[in-house]
Amino acid sequence: MTIDVEVFMPLITEASQAKTLAYRALGLAKEQDVQGYEAGIADAKKHLIAAHKKQTELLQLNSREQQTDINIYVIHAMDHVTNAQMICDMAQELAELHLENKS
Prior knowledge:
Elements: H1 5-30, H2 34-63, H3 72-100
Helix pairs in contact: 1-2, 1-3, 2-3
């Protein structure tokens, strides 16, 4: 079995970066740093979009019958993208609560 790192690693890398930046942005929202939060969540979204684009490319390869082996690594990478989306969404929701209660 050949493991094609170039297939799954970009998904993991981009999704992980999105999660890290979303958590960092949420921390800024807790500190009431509106500008820092907005810049941070925007950066997180850029990485999330990049992860989604890479995921879409992979899905398009499979739809054109240029299939990539679906293995545990690809499934793991897809999980990272899903988790990144959820973390970004939750960070935004929680940030709104923190910033709404700004004194």
